[in-house]
Amino acid sequence: MKKIIYIVSVFFFSATAHSIEFEKMALAGYDKEILSEKQIRFVKKGNAKKVVHLQVGPYEPKALWKEETLKKDVEEMFQTRKDMYKIFGFSDIDFYDYKLAKLGALPRLDIFGSYKKINDKKVYFSESNIYFKNNFLQIKIINEFPDEKGKIAEKEVNDVVTAIKAQDLEMKE
Amino acid sequence: MKKILSVFVIMTLLLPTLVFAAAQKAALDCQPKIIVSPEEKIVRVCNDVSDIICKDVKLEERRSCNESNEYIFSKETTPNDVFNFAQGCFKSAVTSFTQFFTDFIPQLLKAMWELTKSAGETAYNSATGDGPGIWSKIRGMYESTASVAADIYEAVKENPAAYFEKIWSKVVDVVGPMVANYDCLKPQKKVESICGFIAGWVVPPAMLAKVLVRGYKEVKFLAQNGTSSLSDKGKLLKALEHAEKRPILNLKQLQEMQGKFKALGYTDDEFELLFKTGALEKIKLADLKPLTTAEGRFQKRALLGDSKVATTATAAATVVAPKIKPKPRMPEVNISSDFLTFNSVGLKGEKLTASGQVIERIIEDGNEVAYRIRMINPTTGAVVEVKLTKEQIAKMNPQTASAETAAKVADAVKKDTHYKSPEEEFAAAQKEYADRVAREASHSKPKPKVDGMDVDEIHPGDPRYDALMNPGRPHTYANGIEYVPVESPGVIVRAEQRTPPPKTPRPQKEGAAKGPYGSNYIQLMAKNSMGVTTFMPAEIVKQVLENGIPKYIVRILDKTTNTYKERKLSLIELKGMKAKEAPKVQKEIQDFNRNTGFQQNDI
Q1: Interface pTM (ipTM) of the complex?
Q2: What angle in degrees, to the nearest 10, is found between the helix axes of B205-225 and B79-93?
Q3: Which residue of B227, B252, B437, B443 has the lowest C-beta tally within 10 Å?
Q4: Which member of B4, B167, B200 has the closest CB to residue A88?
Q5: How far apart are CA B526 and CA B532, in angstroms?
């Protein structure tokens, strides 16, 4: 019983501590807006059309990405997202690239895509799904831009991921 | 132990409100539990979803997730309980705008993911080895929910009004019926069905209900308080107003109604169309005839025909909470004979006894609910046909007519050569119209058409029929659509739907009548020449000032002597006479003036 109370307390305080750490995160060159305990929005200074969403949450270790099934899994996820997007009025959804890498022992999945909003404005996005110890972190860069010049460069994604990663002790290898 | 801990971690991380709303949650019966069995997992997930969605619903009105019976409400539950419950559900959805996108949608998406995961875990545990590959099926679910939530947030933040304006109109058509049946009614069943969709994305009606409710509120607020982003503010406000006025429909009632329509021969698709277009409101179930009858087929054509011209706004399903009125108890009334005598009232308000013959008994659910009766007008002796509900006829104290009266009624009905049934009237009117069109049109001109249909395909009950029968006279129906007959030079006739022009008040001339009741034609209580106090038609013909107090010259029609009495009355005096606007009075007075040759300056 004592053991349970101890472990429960440890998890409770670690969760709370994590929450505080998360809220302190910052990105140089971006204005910060805390949307919730688990979601931060950064707006690029001088370019309000470019934003970064940072979300933290749990993940299911048994459902992590695997190289051998990656293509099929991403295709299935793409279909799921298309349905979700449609409901909320988005169109022309496209995943034009994805990459699976390792971040320590766990995978990191980057997705690059685009969609159109209800006002037909084209939006490019990149999404880095990073898994570590007890949490999952999603870093999503959203850029509203009419043509392909709006595509998020891999270097930019890596810079943001590195900047975020450097701030969170849990993510450090 | 490992399992308990992992569950605890997930719980702690998944539900941020768990920490902050601990006190609130403690007050609720549905507290998250440590999972010990697959059944309890479902209960817990049900509770999580329920806590998010129904948090404003009183505990005593919430259904426990532990219940496994089919219906959330017992037989003892009153309609008011149902209403309060549903209202609470919707109320909880309407808090703040930002919270919706930063709190509710991510929470719900996470709950969905957790729910899916729990179901997957159940399947996993029940299988041997590595399980049935369930984990690969839920791969990417959480990533997707988080990702899409961010995009939605951005889209809405940029232009909330436009977003909702478009999404609302799109989604509402599809989700309207689902909204009415949100999980609060059957949370357990919903959870079970969600769990059935392990591999796919399930849109919980609750989420869409929230989008609709909140979207509706937001749009209304923005439209009312001004925003430059709305493309057509006036149109939008009108659509919102229209949606608010729509009758409130409970899904259970809707399902019952659907069953009845199906029993009469309608398909599910046809019923859905009738629902979406608001055509269901145009007909009472009691009046609905089976499609095996000609009348039934006419009705169907009229109902579905109308739907083609129904506006999008009409199609907008209401998102307000269901409100159920208790069904009035059917009066006990014995109409065993076809020949009856009733209490009736004469033209002068005197009590009379009328007699008539029941020519049709309208049956619903095996019970007689209304009657078509050919009555002999006790004053004029003319045969008139009336349709009375059971309630109406009960008030008239129907009695079986004596053999002598019955014989007289039967004879009068038989001899009345002027009487025409509605079908005969229709046929005659149709013939008259066709003759007129034929006379007016040259032989080379095409046969008249209405909305692409042959004119003889338009039947009574179809608003276009009235428009056709009365060219030049617009017809406004309860759905707010005005049908105006249009005849083009090519004798192509069609009933055109148009929005009535805004009514502008007529400029008042000095000294002209200006009644306080909207119309100058009113009805008030006054004594007639016989000394009997009764409602009398009257016209306000002039407004004058007397010591600074406005007074009205009122011309009251005394129908017992067929003469006018003119009175100068103040507003207080008018009120004392229970004066009220009565549109029918206008015609009555104008007819009287025309028949008697009465001129304005005769008094």
Answers
A1: 0.88
A2: 70
A3: B443
A4: B167
A5: 8
